[in-house]
Amino acid sequence: MGTSQSTMATTIKLTYFPLPGRAGYTRLAFYVGGVDFEDVIVKGEDFQAMKDSLPGKQLPVLEVNGVTYCESMAILRYAGKLSGLYPSDPVEALKCDMLIDMIQGAGNKVAATIREPDAEKKMKMREELASQTLPTLFGYLEEQLNKFGGNFCIGDQLTIADLELLIKVTWLTKGILDGIPPSWIDPFTKVKAIVEATKNHEKVAEYYASGKV
């Protein structure tokens, strides 16, 4: 596991909406690793005003020493390296990256339904997600997690993969997505165990107890 780097000479500013979404895991990583950063919360109308000035015309963005970067997974990996939550060993890093991409891929399938304007088509897409797509993708994930073993995604040390898994599974099982019942996660006991272990990690629990998103 990489060691936490000093950020005394680095000014970091994360900008995103007031929800976990695609930045919750980065906020968590910085908090767990004790990395100082400015957490800028943007509302919808403010986003529209700044959109054209953003790289990729999207959020989140991360400003490091005055330079702005986009892409949530790149930002998460940077946060993981600063926070000591990204493996320094190349093979362990490969495992971490693989799991991150698997989790993100499942989330992207759901995000596509949010952008669907036709309500009837959206519900059909959601039904397929709940009955086929999510069980298939999380079945692959469950298999890999069982192979790796341990209390977390990669053995017994917390990584950014665990933080992403926590954020994604929480979102997908809160019952806020019409057509996707929380029960779809029930067969995946290893995934659920890792989510609980992550949620109960001292710094993660402390983060949520403070009311942060």
Question: Which terms would index this structure?
Answer:
alpha+beta, Glutaredoxin, Glutathione S-transferase Yfyf (Class Pi), Chain A, domain 2, four-stranded mixed sheet, 8 helices, globular, disordered N terminus, Glutathione-S-Trfase_C-like, Glutathione_S-Trfase
Report, as a whole number of angstroms, the end-to-end distance.
Answer: 26 Å
Q: How would you sum up the global shape?
A: globular
* CA gyration radius, whole angstroms: 17 Å
Mean pLDDT, all residues: 94
CATH topology of the largest domain: Glutathione S-transferase Yfyf (Class Pi), Chain A, domain 2
Strand count, sense and barrel status of the largest sheet are:
4 strands, mixed
Our count of helices gives 8
CATH architecture of the largest domain: Up-down Bundle
Number of strands: 4
Indicate how many domains the architecture comprises: 2
pLDDT < 50 runs, ≥5 residues: 2-8
Strand content: 5-15%
User: What is the helical fraction, as a range of percent?
Assistant: 40-55%
CATH uppermost class of the largest domain: Mainly Alpha
Kindly name the structural category: alpha+beta
Provide the succession of SSEs: EHEHEEHHHHHH
- In spatial order, strands of the major sheet run 2-1-3-4
